[in-house]
Hints:
The chain has helices at residues 16-25, 62-70, 87-96, 108-119, 148-158, 163-170, 174-188, 193-202, and strands at residues 7-12, 33-36, 48-54, 75-82, 100-103, 124-125. By secondary structure, the protein is α/β, with parallel strands linked by helices.
Amino acid sequence: MQTKxxxxxxxxxxxxxxxxxxNQMFANYTDRxxxxxxxxxxxxxxRVDIALYDSFGQTAPEADSVERVLRxxxxxxxxxxxxxxQPARVNQATHEGASGYLSKTLPARELVDALEQVHAGxxxxxxxxxxxxxxxxxxxxxxxxxxxxxxEVIALITEGLSNAEIATTMYLSPNSVKSxxxxxxRKIGVARRSQAVAWGMRHGxxxxxxxxxxxxxPA
Length: 219
């Protein structure tokens, strides 16, 4: 009897802490999921069954970022892993070819179940999330008491986006963005944007664009 092999999954995000958090979610499911090593801001370089695209802190429009993954011939199926469930966003991603649109509120077991359904050829879209934070995984600033949304706002501020650009990127109203900024500033003890950027740079909120894979460094 042939043993069923684990699904090969690539984790796509520019933040090392986010990728590490996702990897930890799959730690108890190694018989079902094999995580392919990924490097921040690099194309997937190994053949995989599924690329799990985590939208945290992505400054490019999601459709453009997902399209780059969809075009990769080494990726069989692409799944968006996100907090933002506006119908237009879901419809655009699936129309472009995404095989799943999964909520960050899914417990690890349900996330694995959903990936297995995608691997079997089913289009899987999670219900709209209602919880305040993702169930698992990790994000910059979590240990500082920042919620997922507060952290993403600080990440985008650190990347240089304006309030209007953050609102567009996160599909939030300008007032909601201002509210998240105020609450985040209180928690991290800053009063101005320049201070928030400096704090973000010191606390891992700059995307790991220049992080090197040790295997790529000549001995």
